[in-house]
Amino acid sequence: MRLRLALVSALLVTGLAAQAARAQISDNVVKIGVLNDQSGLYADLGGPGSVVAAKMAAEDFGGKVLGKPIEIVSGDHQNKSDVGAGIAREWFDVGKVDMAIGFDNSSVALAVEQLAAEKNRIAIAGAVGSTAFTGKSCTPNEASWVYDSYALTTSLAKAVVAEGRDTWFFLTVDYAFGHSLEADASAAVKAAGGKVLGSVRHPLNTADFSSYLLQAQASGAKVVAFANGGGDMVNATKQANEFGLTKNQSIVSLLVFISDVHSMQLQAAQGLKLVTAFYWDRTDETRAWSKRFFEKFGRMPTMPQAAVYSAITHYLNSIKAAGTDEAKAVMAKMRELPVNDFYVKNGHVRADGRLVHDMYLAQVKSPAESKGPWDYYKILSTIPGDQAFRSLADGGCPLVAH
Predict the structure, then answer these.
(1) Which of 132, 178, 228, 270 is the most buried (most CB within 10 A)?
(2) pTM for this prediction
(3) In terms of DSSP H, where are the helices of 167-302?
(4) Radius of gyration, CA atoms only, the chain
């Protein structure tokens, strides 16, 4: 009888332990959703390449975390915040998605960020420029892994003004990302002793920039700054060259991806100065990972694509350390654990969700300087993370005590 009771007790304990282990991972799967522009003007910088990077991260982790499978799904938000929010809502409510990543569009990111907080899921931004994401709109359930408009513009504007190009005119994409880029760059230009002579705004995905370039030309500014990205930046740069704008004025792009340079080719892009979070040919580690990515995708990775791999790996390590995929417990570990990989060294996630890491001031090589395909950048200097990003106190995140 005693033996029978002991066996029953042992079975009960074993059953409870197994149940507890199952409860560590909701729905017995860790599901990650890559949500970005899969087919439009931002598809080259993130798009399908970010899905490849996400799958690489899951595979390199062994395909499981805490004994449960890792699943990657993807969605195309078409650069529409309502479409992005609709996909995210379905993912969180029905699809058992634990974390959404990417976005690569500030309006979509801001919408999904609030939804993730409401549903107690996690949202990790890739190429998202709006400082509001980790600022006034911050939540306990988000992180931003690549850059924001402050990091992209501040060091670049200082460097350009210091060269004597001290009067600026902005050609700005008319949504949250462009507005944020222009505001931060303008503040940096003025702080460095320069002047802003004006600006003009264009719709997202503009084909013809002629009227905007005419206004930029008429301003007489020494610098015409493009506060846009992806296909818009590529088209604006090509048309500025065709227009002859570069004969008397300098073009500065506030956001450049290696995919843009590849699209424009070095003849058109040469000499452009930019700030980047990642360059594939910077170290032995970046080269090794990027060559693996190239074998799968046929292109060298952009900074958002490299960041997707880094962020997912850190997320999975944080689940492992927390012993659960519950969002707040995982976010606590994401803030606690340092980020050390090919993408970031000694990075850390602040209370506002900002991953603080070094950025790099770079210049696009001339055709003569390039040794072959994808050999596009010269790294001019490293901008330490605590200088690259605005301070925690200045961000305006409601979660941060002032």
Answers:
(1) 228
(2) 0.91
(3) 176-191, 210-219, 230-243, 258-264, 266-269, 284-297
(4) 23
